[in-house]
Each structure stands twice: as structure tokens, then as C-alpha cells.
Amino acid sequence: MARHTLVTVAPRTALITKSGFSNYDLCLNPYVGCEFKCQYCYVRFFVKDSKAEWGDFVRVREHMGTQLPKELLKGYVKVTDGKKKEVGADGTFLRDEEGKFIFKQTYKNLNITDSRLVIGTMTDPYQPKEVKYRIMRTALQTLVDKKYPQFKKVGIFTRSPLVLQDIDLIKQLPNPRVHFTVTPYHDEITRVLEPLTAPADVRWNVIRRLKEAGIRVHVNVAPVVPILSEHLIEKWVEILSDIAPAEYFVDPMQPYQESFSAFAQACTKIEGLDWTQVRDTMLDKDKYLEWKQQYRQRWESARKKLEHKCPDTLPIWCDHEFGTWVDMRTNKSMDNSRYGDEEDA
Ligand code: SF4
Questions:
Q1: Which is the closest atom of ligand 1 to the Cα of 44?
Q2: How many whole angstroms from its chain centre is CA 81?
Q3: Is ligand 1 within 6 A of the CB of residue 123?
Q4: 10 Å Cβ neighbour count for 111?
Q5: Strands of the sheet with 31-32, listed across from one edge
Q6: Which one-letter DSSP state was computed for residue 93?
Q7: From CA 334, how far away is CA 313, in angstroms rounded?
Q8: Residue 43: CB within 6 Å of ligand 1?
Q9: How far, in Å, is the centroid of ligand 1 from the Cα of 230?
Q10: Ligand 1 in reach of 158 Cβ (< 6 A)
Q11: Where are the domains of the chain?
């Protein structure tokens, strides 16, 4: 059945906003909505459309070319800075009728030259529609233009081979880093769970080409899922050892309520999959923790055999239980808010 995507022009809202990612300060999204329609995608929680389901709509930020220069020339971005208790004229904290403290939102300005920008936090910036609209390319052309203040570092999150068409610009960004996702399933399963993305072999080749171009690549192996991801451990560790990216990140799936129900529906269509076993493991906290430990141990033993091939690659395990990232080589938690900044200084 042919797919229909609802394509509209996005409202002319601010382009650079506060980043929710710990190791970036500000973010930029050239599109709203995502045609890749990954069934496990949690962004469906936040970005909705009254006329189309998640994955079937894309809003194009056509104002990128005119508005981004203005936002950069301002030199700073105003962002929220938590809530503080409101103080009355007499210097005491104000309370509401029920006696509870009244809070007010506070703000701060982040200088562009001191900030780390990430592109593609809510939506992959290399949408299939990018071939036509080139909003991402427009953003990159503006970001590398020395007429404007330059960010300290720029990261790009994507899983699309279209990133290759912008290698010339990405290389000119300040401290560029591409966070490239390779989804850890066999291709026939990926087809069900990510209807429009490229097969794994194509994605590994994209990573090779980015690396050959001298761009720092952070590979996201995500989201890891019981049964679906188990058969690939040794093969993928081998590929990663050969490619030797700057770092890679192994991230087990979080069964968020809304995304999990879409994921569950899709999984029931995968031929031969014992879905109940996947579900029962993921929804039982103890079982899932046990499974994650076993998966990590298998990854670790495969990795240790080959670490001599990629001594400079940083392997990271995403530990959701403790809300931290773990350097697999030392088993120590990392400061992910500053992660990667030392090398860029
Ligand atoms: S590519 Fe990213 S934003 Fe798009 S559907 Fe997949 S997980 Fe969501």
C-alpha cells in the first residue's frame, strides 16, 4: 500500500532552543515529525498532529534560511532555567490560597560561542523530504558561515545515508560529531519496525565514509531489545572493531508507555517472533534487569577479544537503572554532561 505523508509548512517559531540532551546546550530541528516512523520512537509522545499519525506527517521549517541568521546574529539564546519561589514585596516567599509556595519560571541567556549545539533531537534532520527541501543543508550553510557567531561544538543525530551529501559542510562545522544510529536487528525485522530506513550494511558504509572524511563518528547501537538484538552481538562487535569509530553507545530500549504499545503492535507482525517472551521480559523490572546484565556480559566478552583492533574507541553502555553512561573498558560511570568536551578544548 502506498504511503501518504502529510507535508505542511511549520509555524515560524524559534529555531534554536534548549537541548534536553545532557551533553549539548542548545538544539535545532529542521523538520517536525519524522517519516522514518520507527515503531519504538518516543518522540510520538511530544509531537502530534490532529490530521495524521506519528510517521505520516512532516512539517518543513521553511523559515530556516531567513530566521537562523537572525537568531545567530543576536549572539545568545534565552532558555528556561528552572523554577524559583516567588518573593513578595516584604521579602517573604509568596503562597497560594492552600498555603503552597508559588513558583515562577526563570530564564538565562546562553552565549552562542560558549554553547554546544545538537541538530536532530526531535526528528531525524535527514528526512526523505530533505532531498527536495534542503532545509538541513540551508542550516549547515548558515552555521559554517563566518559572518555569524560560531558554536563551540555541533553534533548531528541521524540514521540516514543522506548525511553523506553534506560531508563538505559538516567538515567545516566547529568540532563536528555525527551520532549515527544503527538499529540492532536483522534487516527483515528493521523493515517492520522502521519502514523507511536503510539496511544495516548501508549504514555501516555511511559510518565508514564519514570516518574516512575525517569526521568524528559516534555510533548509536539502539534500541537494544531482548531476542531481536541477541543474534547480532558478535557480528556487530566485529564490525565496530574494524571501523573503530571514536565511540559507540549500546542502549537498551526503555518501555515507555505510548511508544511501547506501537512497538508491541508492530512486533506481533514479525513472523516467527515469540513476542510474548519479549514483552514479558521487558515489562518485568527484575527480568529485564537480569536480561540487560546478560546482554552486556555477552557484549563485553565479544568486545574484549577484539579491543586490540580499536584501542582508541570508547565503548559506552547506557545504564538506565542508574541514569548514567558506563565506560565499558573501566566499568566506571562517565560525566555525560561534559562527555567529549575535553578533546574539543
Ligand atoms: S528516526 Fe528518530 S525521530 Fe524519526 S521515527 Fe525514528 S527514532 Fe523517531
A1: 8
A2: 23
A3: yes
A4: 13
A5: 6-9, 57-60, 31-32
A6: B
A7: 15
A8: yes
A9: 22
A10: no
A11: 1-75+112-181, 182-339
**Would you say the CB of residue 37 lies under 6 angstroms from ligand 1?**
yes
C-alpha cell at 171: 567538515
Q: Virtual CA dihedral for 153, 334, 29, 171, nearest 10 degrees?
A: 40
Cα(278)–Cα(49) distance, integer angstroms: 30
Q: Whose CA is nearest to atom 6 of ligand 1?
A: 38
pTM of the model: 0.94
131 by DSSP, 3-state: which?
Answer: helix
Cβ atoms 68, 76 nearer than 8 A: no
Integer Cα distance of 327 and 331 in angstroms: 5
Distance from the CA of 38 to the center of ligand 1, in angstroms?
A: 5
pLDDT in tens, the chain (345 residues): 567 899 999 999 999 999 998 899 999 999 999 999 999 999 988 899 999 999 999 999 999 999 999 999 999 999 999 898 899 888 899 999 888 999 999 999 999 999 999 999 999 999 999 999 999 999 999 999 999 999 999 999 999 999 999 999 999 999 999 999 999 999 999 999 999 999 999 999 999 999 999 999 999 999 999 999 999 999 999 999 999 999 999 999 998 887 899 999 999 999 999 999 999 999 999 999 999 999 999 999 999 999 999 999 999 999 999 889 999 999 999 987 777 675 554
**With a 6 A CB cut-off, is 262 part of the ligand 1 pocket?**
no
